[in-house]
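Hi everyone,

Forwarding the result from last night's run.
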Amino acid sequence: MKKIIIGLLMLLLFAITISCDNDTASNESEEVTTVYEGWTLEWSDEFNATEINTNNWTYELGDGTDYGLPVGWGNNEKQIYLQRSENVSIVKDGEVSALAITALEDATGGYTSAKLTTQNLFSARFGRVEVRAKMPKGQGLLPAIWMLGDNKDQISWPGCGEIDIAEVVGNEPSKFYSTLHYTSAENKHAEKQGSTVLPDGDFSDAYHIFTLDWTPESVTFSLDGQKRYMFLIENDMKEFLRSAYLILNVAVGGNWPGETDETTLFPQTMYTDYIRVYSKDGFQAPEAPVLDIEEETVGQIIEVGIADNAIQDTFTSLGGLSVIAYGPGAPDISSSATAINGDKSLVYDFSGGDWGGAYLLLDTPTDISAFNQIKFSLNKPDTFVNAEIKLEAGATNALVFLKDYSGIELTNGFVEYTIPLADFVGLELSGLTVPFSIWNPQDANDAFVEITVLIDNIYFAM
């Protein structure tokens, strides 16, 4: 009889454990780490301590410039990442002990947040990554659970590969996205993306489990134990045959979520109950492919010195520079013999349909405080109605909209624009790093437009 009672108690305990594990969308804390048959838990953070475990996590701080990116982390984001308890801590969220990453608006109208990574502390190569989290919401917010390749310091994005396990655009709080970013065989930014909408409520209402199952053949994303989409790893996707580290952050503003508005309420917090990484029992990973910088870098086909075609031949104050295309809608870059200054102009071919642009980057920061205006000439079709013209200097950046300025018609179809530097509000002219960039060309309906634009005769003047 005693054996029967013990057996019944064990069955009851097992049933209770399964019930807890399946309560994925509740606010109940997970008491027992999920055990999957055929899998071994390799790494986890349950966020049950009083402080963040610095053996697991490090911080990325600032506005992106300390990491070789333009101001705004390459996405025109507005937040500054800080390491302080107001922005990142372990808290009690009901019964859940969770990592809290909080976006705040400060007294000056700026924004702070936090970004944690496991870079140089932990990385995974294949296996299962499971994250239980609750997302913030609001126009202009972008919480993210994602991964970047360990070779990020050897090759620029997206050649390092990016796996977005879960992103929620704040004005679509019931929809989450999972995305792979990589370099295509044509040396262009490529992505594979899926999205899922909750049938009821949104991702700020309750905790959900986001799962990545990663093999040498495919990447599969699931929500609350239900498979949502799978992407095969094709021949030009070597990025996903190498190891990657984990990242958690909440961004404010930027190219994808757009700017905040009067409906955006702060503070907004992403709560992470746990992150668990499992390995498949008996699995033997194939050898990682050797990195081929030329093959896996976006824009590697751009010829050396091509950026000079856009600068006025007699204007030598800028020194050496290069041109860099960025974003899913980034243009193909070439040169044209159609010009108004020198032998050639710089050509941007935009494919339309998504955000993106290209910028000129100086080899050495340059002081342009002696000038008060920038001049440049564009040869563009009538369908090109508007774009962002952006300059960057040190830790500052500022943009204007082309539609706000009228040009003067020149020869060869070019139109010359003159923009006062004072219109680039907040730009520090003493350390110019990006003397010209053009982003997101749009038509009269504010849609990203497929166009070819020639750029020539850029210079600064009094």
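The longest strand covers residues 268-280.

Cheers,
N.
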